[in-house]
């Protein structure tokens, strides 16, 4: 990993850069170092731009702006590549478990046997939440969206663990990480049980991560509940493909909030809220709602494809397109295969899957989508799997959050461990009024 050039290095040119970039502003020329990533991607280090050229860049949505250096996840949108700490997502999905992938993302290496045993045992044994937190659920609306529960209760966890909020104390960070990983599924499952008026089911420490989620969601006190291990495995694979995705909207939010030295619970709660949006983690819920709309409308696709292409129509094909992938999202490939496996195993025939497969086929032959490289993304198939497993649609973004938690934690931790980190504070181009005089009310 290149040692990033410090601001003062840039001026005297002693940078570690692979190349230099020249900027001509009016008749003045400025040089900036170019840094190169592991896979050859180039970034122009403009940290001295304002102080030397008196100008800033403008990049709505940050499509062309790198916010940091990171060693956690590599995404190649052109080739459809996704790797966590160098390991291809396909290998991790096939060979690893969610807890092992969480360890890999957070600590940077696959755990040895002792490390895994310690981490796995600790997470299993922190899965209960404080009993009085249950009162939150008693006073909230039954049909409230579970993402609201998730962010509020994650934030409230900080009030129970005032002894472990210091982001610079590795021991306090470690116990907070274990608590978050262990308690998020419990918080989520309790929100679901509240929505269906059923008793909350305690986690069982003898169960694996995916098994416990199914147990807490679908068991009832009145009868035995046998976890289907194949379904639990498929759920963990779905969580693995969601575990991280470099500087996406919610992860950037976690970094932004953490950069003010906010504690880890506050930072993660902010990430949950950013993920909720239908353009981001809320898309898996929006995909199912879109497929149900098409299904109840008779299943004809042309009308919906035309609407998605119509600039004057707000309708979009949810689950299609991606800021980074200009190719098929490798996670969609994995989840597409998993959705067939889960539906076959459960003997479920879901007409929405038929519509999804047809929609994908039609869209990928349509020049509008082909020209804009709009392929199915991770959210296109995940909802089909979750629906087949029995999760209600409102829980889909919650499952995304449970999957994404290790990535959020890994980035928050990487940020605090970096000497380069500064509080995030972007600039702006002001286009409001010039100075003007205050007019008293009686004269307006
Ligand atoms: C996730 O960043 C991440 O890594 C996110 C994520 C992660 O793991 O964290 O991968 C998870 O959020 C996946 C994306 C889930 N969202 C959706 O499926 C919602 C539908 N998709 C779109 O809203 C859109 O594609 C985005 C938000 C995903 C990407 O938006 P961009 O990069 O800002 O692209 P854009 O809106 O500028 O679109 C470019 C063009 C536009 O047309 P033109 O103006 O060029 O004519 O493509 C069109 C858009 O109108 N377009 C679509 C479309 N997505 C983009 N047209 C119809 N349907 C769509 N889905």
β-strand amount: 5-15%
Q: Order of strands across the biggest sheet?
A: 1-2-3
Low-confidence stretches: 1-17
Q: State the end-to-end CA separation.
A: 61 Å
User: What's the helical proportion of residues?
Assistant: 40-55%
Output the number of helix runs.
Answer: 19
Q: What kind of sheet is the major sheet?
A: 3 strands, antiparallel
Q: How many DSSP E strands?
A: 6
Oligomer: single chain
| Ligand identities | s-citryldethia Coenzyme A
Structural description of this entry:
This protein has 444 residues and is mainly alpha-helical. Helices cover 50% and strands 7% of the residues. It contains 19 helices and six strands. It has a three-stranded antiparallel beta sheet with strand order 1-2-3. A three-stranded antiparallel beta sheet has the order 4-5-6. A hairpin with a 4-residue loop joins β4 and β5. α7 (146-160) packs antiparallel against α12 (264-275) and α13 (283-296) crosses α18. Residues 61, 245, 248-249, 279-280, 283, 308, 316-324, 372, 374, 377-379 line the site of s-citryldethia Coenzyme A.
Which descriptors apply to this entry?
single chain, binds s-citryldethia Coenzyme A, 19 helices, 3-stranded antiparallel beta sheet, 444 residues, disordered N terminus
Please sum up the structure shown.
This protein is mainly alpha-helical and 444 residues long. The chain has helices spanning 7-12, 49-53, 89-95, 98-107, 113-124, 134-139, 146-160, 170-195, 209-218, 229-241, 249-258, 264-275, 283-296, 302-309, 330-346, 351-363, 367-371, 378-389, 396-417, and strands at residues 19-25, 28-36, 42-44, 73-76, 81-84, 87-88. α11 (249-258) packs across α19.
